[in-house]
């Protein structure tokens, strides 16, 4: 079977790859390691250690508190860079702050509190856990009904399922643009239009989309979004998240965590909370500057690549996984558990196998880092900025080797703790 | 007047200072700069740049996602270190996460939601803005009455004012152990006892106390606390905050931001939110590992010093400020705007002057960094780990020189933006 797609074809794809040189912009400490988990934690950009060290020594060590007038703009400044290079949003619509979960809470609460007497909240039943949990808590506190939209673990949410659930009672819909397991990609423009028809607000979780597919928040008519920066954006472990609020909505929404960074004239420190007139009202407390700093060198690489070229390569890397999995793995009980058409998929691909947990561990021992997602999925995320076609070929080849000898049977199962 | 306390006496205090050698454990880039703003942003520990660089290159660059099983414990592990070295709390009672403002929101909401039909919330009218704003939002959302306790800008809250306001209708009291302007130190044991008598819960903000005075959460019977790590703890700009929940309360309180890090069996990613049985239920989203990392070398220095020695030196540094301000500055219209007794003061001292903003700027130009706090205070925070007695002497001497020639009159006023 291996002859169906010989390795030299992957090498030829690399030779023709316009992004190939960008691999050198990342730290590749172990060239034998095949890293297909950039959708969980992106690699370290080569410029980041020196950038961070300079910030620590000069900004903190020498500048001390005198650096704050610069630092205090970083959440907005980096938000504007994200808006321009990855999100298709306007200046002043994106800010980096807090975690994705906290941002989900703030924006969902703001939307629900502005939704009048609408009583229904919709979320994809298979959405990432924190999305479901945050909404569950907000809905319960307000006596609202949380409806879980039935969704296919392989194919994602069907638009007709969503349309059937949308009516004048729906306050808020929370959806992921790219599903965290299957990689299923939603048509954001179609979803936004359908929700608008019934007056519902859509809150997008872009965690698995940002930096891998062009997100056009303005062009698709998006109102609210959040997302994380440590996956395809390569911001570092637990890097702060972003939030987006369409400019026209900012003054009409209020979030409930009334911290001093959200107040008009913050440093007046006056009595009573008066929300800032703009996006600042969605801020809360003092941001970590060391956590924000790595986003600059990371965005430099993305800006140089261009999100459209990233997407083009991501499609082809995904197609290569699907092609090789069909040829080499399906006979061994694997199934491609993602949409088969590249147009309906983000930049990662899921494989189903009942022994996915053990397989992911055996694969790691064989030098391929993907990740396991409950209950029975192996997720492969070939981040386009630094993953070669030949890496995908080699990873699937090693997986085929494991499959042929059932090389995971001696590997322990048991609890998994990977973010 | 200068002869009242000649400079060589300050040098002698330094020669006898058991913590004097610890100054070398910090980066002192400019030995002419006198930094009295460690209560706003602590200095950079000398071990931090290499510690962080190693984390970035090895933990992130080489380890990649495989480092998460270690990282995911850091919030709790560092929380336990804080508990042991600075907070007088037990293991499993302190965790580092989010910002102080977000932690205030979580713990205050949890306390209010458990307070039955009590309808009153108390906060020091002069408390740090974010404390007042967060409570204002929570109280309004629940239809509760927020009462501002009258408090003296110089002397802090009087216990009899608090006692007069405490009754069976009080759900929650939010107080700072050390006031952010005056440095007034509250008697935590007395406050906790008074609140307990009427069944009210106290939430402590320890931001200006932690790392400067011994906080004995267990011994004083404290229930809830939050605080920041970038002041006397030297964790870096915007370093993540901590929260404390007394062990016996943990399973009885629920906070409203239901993120995945707060769920029992987080990586099961199951349906429905089920809060972790312990302190983990107060977590929300993925923590920034780069923001957490500097707390380890910072706590190493604090542990070596010992909080009691830090406190002893902090008292004397404060006394020196008061002595010199009385002798040199009072004739020029300054007033010590902090409790005069060291027992009633944390490690910073405030000076009142109508031109405080301009004075703080002129003083910075003269090589002394303190900070301005609205409306008319100059705050001097001589962090004991790295501030010499002679630094305080020199700072007050330069301030005296400014006062003699009214050297701030050519300096512009206008908005201030310092965290």
Automatic annotation (TrEMBL), chains A, B:
Enzyme Commission code: 3.7.1.3
Instruction: Provide this UniProt record's keywords sorted from A to Z.
Output: Hydrolase, Pyridine nucleotide biosynthesis, Pyridoxal phosphate
**GO molecular function per UniProt:** kynureninase activity; pyridoxal phosphate binding
Query: Coiled coil located at which positions?
Result: none
Recorded hits in Pfam families, A to Z, give: KYNU_C (PF22580)
N6-(pyridoxal phosphate)lysine modifications at: 231
Quick one: which pathway? Cofactor biosynthesis; NAD(+) biosynthesis; quinolinate from L-kynurenine: step 2/3; Amino-acid degradation; L-kynurenine degradation; L-alanine and anthranilate from L-kynurenine: step 1/1
Give the cofactors, semicolon-separated.
Answer: pyridoxal 5'-phosphate
- Recorded superkingdom: Bacteria
Q: Which residues participate in pyridoxal 5'-phosphate binding?
A: 100-101, 128-131, 205, 208, 230, 260, 286
Q: Which GO terms describe its biological process?
A: anthranilate metabolic process; L-kynurenine catabolic process; L-tryptophan catabolic process to kynurenine; NAD+ biosynthetic process; quinolinate biosynthetic process
Recorded GO CC terms: cytoplasm
Instruction: Please list the reactions this protein catalyses.
Output: 3-hydroxy-L-kynurenine + H2O = 3-hydroxyanthranilate + L-alanine + H(+); L-kynurenine + H2O = anthranilate + L-alanine + H(+)
Query: Assembly state and interactors?
Result: Homodimer.
Into which family does the record put it?
Belongs to the kynureninase family.
Q: What does this protein do?
A: Catalyzes the cleavage of L-kynurenine (L-Kyn) and L-3-hydroxykynurenine (L-3OHKyn) into anthranilic acid (AA) and 3-hydroxyanthranilic acid (3-OHAA), respectively.
Which protein, by its recorded name, is this? Kynureninase
Q: What is the lineage of its organism?
A: Bacteria, Bacillati, Actinomycetota, Actinomycetes, Micromonosporales
